[in-house]
Design goal:
It is a single chain. By secondary structure, this protein is α/β, with parallel strands linked by helices. The protein has two domains: about 140 residues, Response regulator (Rossmann fold), CATH 3.40.50; about 170 residues, GAF domain (Beta-Lactamase). The strands form two sheets. The protein has a six-stranded antiparallel beta sheet, with helices on both faces. The chain has a five-stranded parallel beta sheet with strand order 2-1-3-4-5, sandwiched between helices. A hairpin with a 5-residue loop joins strand 10 and strand 11. Helix 6 packs parallel to helix 9 and helix 7 runs antiparallel to helix 9. The longest helix has about 45 residues. The relative contact order is 0.08.
Length: about 325
């Protein structure tokens, strides 16, 4: 028995989780508690009646309850109902010798996680407990990941809303450029940003840049190959060289670069907005890419509106 338990313990190990056994048979309770579960690595307590069990569940909040269905007075189903009413949510494995399908359905409806038919083997018990605890841990981890993703999406939306307001409220091309470059540097937390705009009614073909270390936006002459690539193809470009960096026609090489097209509503490329890092190597995320694309789209909308205003002015003058 001891050798078999050691083998099973290596396959279905207890990790100090708290288990409450609720069964009116003291012999059953002692066997499960002292001969099996304590030795398998669990912290075990027990009760022989339903009322005492409910009090202990409320006071100690065990991680898992091994609950006998067929007890005098309140049955296991009654205990499940009382736990549900009282807001207690431990994991529950129901033990029964009756094998009633209706009882099993009702037990799962009331929150039971697993169902063990007596008599069960030590392996069946330890396997059921380990699988129930592991499944709950996986659900909890998945819930935390989902919550983290929801929170991240909320933060991204708030960030996007904050910077988009500054861009769409711009009254001049200079304001559009400044606000777009500030949004790129601050929103993506990078060392460097640039904005290239094609020739239009409101601005000649021009490139501007902004360094995080300098509180100013400057117009530059550059042979940045990334601009040509994105303007010609209308595609996102990401480059990385953690060792030497690469030259884009500015004062110092970049370790990483992300450049996205500035697109109009009809998907015409009218510019390029990009970000980069001089020192720390960084792989830009999909969220960085989506953020830059959104900033570029907002800038394109405002520029288009300015072009329409200039067209209207020209028509009025011609008339």
């Amino acid at each position: 028995m001891k050798q078999m338990l050691e083998q099973l313990k290596s396959v279905y190990p207890g990790m100090g989780e708290s288990i409450l056994i609720v069964d009116d048979s003291e012999e059953m309770v002692m066997r499960l508690s002292e001969d099996i579960l304590s030795k398998a690595g669990y912290h075990v307590t027990w009760e022989l009646d339903s009322e005492s069990a409910l009090s202990k569940i409320g006071a100690e909040q065990p991680e898992l309850v091994l609950l006998d269905l067929d007890m005098p007075g309140k049955t296991g189903l009654d205990v499940l109902q009382d736990m549900k009413t009282g807001g207690y949510r431990p994991l529950v494995i129901l033990m029964t010798g009756s094998g009633s399908e209706q009882a099993a359905i009702e037990a799962f409806r009331l929150g039971a996680n697993e169902y063990l038919l007596k008599p069960f083997t030590t392996e069946e018990l330890l396997k059921s407990i380990r699988q129930t605890l592991d499944a709950a841990a996986q659900r909890k981890a998945a819930d935390l990941i989902q919550w983290s993703e929801i929170r991240q999406q909320q933060q991204n939306f708030e960030r996007l809303l904050h910077y988009s307001k500054a861009i769409v409220s711009a009254q001049t091309v200079d304001d559009i450029v400044k606000n777009t470059l500030c949004a790129a540097v601050q929103g993506c937390q990078v060392d460097y940003s640039f904005l290239h705009l094609a020739d239009s009614l409101v601005t000649p073909k021009t490139t501007w840049e902004r360094h995080a270390s300098q509180d100013r936006t400057v117009q530059i002459q550059t042979t940045n190959p990334a601009i040509n690539y994105v303007m010609e193809r209308g595609e996102v470009l990401q480059q990385s060289d953690a060792i030497m960096g690469f030259d884009i026609g500015i004062e110092q090489p970049l370790r990483t670069l992300l450049a996205v097209p500035v697109l109009t509503a009809d998907r015409k490329t009218v510019g390029v907005v990009g970000i980069g890092q001089f020192q720390a190597h960084r792989i830009f995320s999909t969220m960085d890419e989506q953020f830059l694309e959104a900033m570029g789209e907002y800038a394109a909308i405002v520029l288009q509106n300015m072009c329409l205003i200039e067209q209207e002015k020209s028509l009025l003058i011609a008339a």
